Amino acid sequence: MSKSERPSDTSFRKTWDRTEYALKAAERESHAKEESKARFEAKAQGKKYYPRASTPPDAKETASRAARLDVSANVGKTTLVPAGASTGKRGRGAGFYCQDCDLTFKDNLQFVDHLNSKQHLSNTGQSGEVKRATVEEVRERLEWLVRRKREEAEAVEK
């Protein structure tokens, strides 16, 4: 047996793949470079830089609401609330309740702000990014609005 074939007391240690770690280091450096560039651009525009969290792959783009928010629906209604529900925002209590986030809000302004917040959008599976409309989509929407207005005017005349 030669010296190189003999088992040693350090044979259990992991051997490091230098190329793998060199690639990881290069990736980390490029990420840091991109972030510093984004920080510089934000500062040049007079804004504060906020690092973006990664968007989950199954998140959908934020869409406008299909129906109007009816916050006045509960005006004048009586609701039974458990005794311990008045402490904090967590859980169902007196006020406006968000089922997705399990939060209760005392007034409609807080509730509407919450519905547009990052926390609520992420809990409902939306990315918070709005799809940019094309010129054709804008034209179609304007044509639809004109048709709807004409139909409403005709219905009033009849």
Strands, helices and their partners?
Elements: H1 18-44, E1 60-62, E2 96-98, E3 103-105, H2 108-115, H3 118-123, E4 126-130, H4 135-157
Parallel strand pairs: 1-4
Antiparallel strand pairs: 2-3
Can you tell me about this structure?
The chain has a two-stranded parallel ribbon with strand order 1-4. Strand 2 and strand 3 form a beta hairpin. The chain contains four helices and four strands, in the order H-E-E-E-H-H-E-H. The radius of gyration is 28 Å and the shape is extended.
Order of helices and strands: HEEEHHEH
Into which percent range does the helicity of residues fall? 40-55%
What percent of residues are in strands?
Answer: 5-15%
How many individual helices?
A: 4
Please give the radius of gyration in angstroms.
Answer: 28 Å
State the major sheet.
2 strands, parallel
How is the largest sheet built, in terms of strand order?
Answer: 1-4
Instruction: Tell me, briefly, the overall form.
Output: extended
DSSP strand tally: 4
| Uncertain runs | none
Average pLDDT taken over every residue:
78
Distance between the termini: 107 Å
Provide a quick synopsis of the model.
This protein is mainly alpha-helical and 158 residues long. The chain has helices at residues 18-44, 108-115, 118-123, 135-157; strands at residues 60-62, 96-98, 103-105, 126-130. It is extended, with a radius of gyration of 28 Å.
Task: Please name the defining characteristics of this protein.
single chain, 9% strand
